[in-house]
Amino acid sequence: MGLFRLIYDSSVLMAQSVPEALEALSDQDAGAALVAGATWVVRAQGRHMPLARRFIALSNIPQLGLIAKNGSYVAIGCMVTHHVLAQALPDIPVLRALRQAAGGSANPGVRQVATIGGNICAADFAAADLVAAALCLDATVELQGVKGTQPLALADYLSVRAHRSGAEILTEISIPISNACSAHARLTLRKAGDYPVVIVSMRAARRSDKTLRDVRIAVGSVEATARRWTSVERALEGQIPTPAELQGLAANHIAEFTPREDIGAPGWYRAQVLPHVLCSAYADLLGQLEGNVA
Amino acid sequence: MTAEPRHPAVMDYPRRDARDKLQGRTRYAADLGGLETLHAVLVRAEVASAHILRVDVSRARAMPGVRAIATAGDGPGLHGIGIADQPLFADTVIRHYGEPIAAIAADTLAQAQAAAREVILETAPLPPVLTMAEALTQGARLIHPDWATYEVLKEGATRGGNIAWEARVQRGDTNAAFGRSDVVVVEGTYEVGRQSHVAFEPRAVVAAFEDGRYHIQTSTQAPWTVRAVTAKVLGIAPSMVRVTVPAVGGGFRLKFD
Amino acid sequence: MPVNLTLNGEARTFFGDLRTSLLDVLRQTFRLTGTKPVCGEGFCGACIVHIDGVAVPSCLRPIGLLEGACVTTIEGLAPLDAPNPLQLAFQDQDVVQCGMCFPGMVMALSKFLQTNSTPSRSEVKAAMIGNICRCTGYERIVDAVLSLQSGERAQ
Questions:
Q1: CB atoms C134 and B200 under 8 Å
Q2: ipTM of the predicted structure?
Q3: How far apart are CA C86 and CA C124, in angstroms?
Q4: C87, B23 Cβ separation under 8 angstroms
Q5: Cross-chain Cβ contact C17/A57 below 8 Å
Q6: A225: number of CA atoms within 13 Å, CB side?
Q7: Which pTM was predicted?
Q8: CA A31, CA A161: separation in Å to the nearest integer?
Q9: Which of left, alpha, beta for A224 (phi over 0: left; psi -120 to 50: alpha)?
Q10: Cβ–Cβ of C65/A57 closer than 8 Å?
Q11: What is the pLDDT of residues B64-75, one digit of tens each?
């Protein structure tokens, strides 16, 4: 009976607070995994990985599921689901890419449970819509460890997330509010429902002469980790090309990517369609800027 | 001059099975296995071509929950289409990637999977013949060196060497059609990956020995083939095998073998 | 630690590995096989159930996260002798083929219709993104969903 209880009692911990979750996570012998929406962790065996021996679930910690507008930032709790994000994110033009990403990812059932924190922390999930969207919006993540909290630019976190040691929980995502506009585009091989082979999120504002400023382009699903496309960002700064011109310009910078190969699509295909997806995000963005003369 | 039939046939009756399917009451083959059913996994070859030196299932048999393990000796007969060239389990030779080596039945699927990892399979590599073109070249290694001794199930086809069964279809005059001045002939070779339907219901079977014969409940489009092949590999009379088919959750010709 | 939940209106308790998916618990422990296991990855929709009134794929929900939850499966959606209007539309308009997708299809779309009772064709299709029908009977499914708006079922 003792062994029975030990095994079954410890397979899922419903943490009631972040410190309790951190303490459980610190127990290295437990082979524990943090569980937000669970949609990635429970499918480990499908990726030929062992299922974590213990789940530490964050769903009983209410403050992790909140969205708040704090002055010039919007703070999004890590447990906010895609569905809630799409419904409840403040209706501010700059956040549109994130709303689009959240409302169009995966499928309605998955959007009800998958979370923004889970999307950002699933280091081996390359096709996360919310990561690209948050990246183009200059998001910062808040990492809570045993010794305290640390903010980190999302771009920096993405480059180190697979190698960070010590127990920590990504509790919050902050996005600065500006008068820029944003747009999100994705290409799936079926009309919908599968993982996108290319994701592009874009943000920009306009100068008084209608040229672009503060341009951000984030590319997801092409490489293993989403990243900014800074060369094309720089080329757009102070310019206002047509979508077709941008597509031509972007084609000259494709070689900067090392596209990933997987069962979804070959690498060359991802690289080849990237300028087209960029072009459709850009056309959408231009429409937003036109309708939102700042 | 035929009169209107007095009672015309009504063709729009609802499907008798629709209601149960819409209420989740239909039991497909994969829904049958309750606690009384053992779960089986196949141990499959992970090379395309090899001699089998040793299959040792003793460690797997001792694993928790394992109730039985079947290997080549348990189903020695050959079956096939046209000629009987396929074993149920590979015996001395592996002829294709994924060829079954053993079947393990355990109380749970997880136990059967754990036991499958304990099966010892020792092989010596044989050069594989991977494409049809390769198999047809002069001097290609014979996939079935004993092909001439195999039982012919359907007479009349050309066979020999790596050709198990050759059938030709001749209709019309192709040369005359290609020779027409208004026809442009475009030649090319195109290769695609193997396509497989993904029926929603997987391949599933629940088998029992009851009332003096085998009862196989399976998701199939060809119950008579299941009966014939089962009898053949087990070396028993077809009348010893009863096959029943619950609702099939998608067939698409996939479940025709 | 056991998990207590309300399943199709009745109090039920699960003992076992809390990482087990709700799908496996429904089918193996409670033998409610109307919820279908197909992709196991949340893509196909065959295992959709209602958890606290929300349509979600049960393959992605560890049972340990569901203490106190209210779960409705296809078996508990409507009385046997009184299928809901969507089930009747699917039946009467001859929409059902192999049937494997319909438990999930019914659970997803009946919940969708509660939030949007007069959807457009494209809204119905968007609501079905997570429900695959391998018999590819999509258009008839959409037709049947849309037929509910007029309040009369097609003959």
A1: yes
A2: 0.95
A3: 13
A4: yes
A5: no
A6: 16
A7: 0.92
A8: 18
A9: alpha
A10: yes
A11: 999 999 999 999
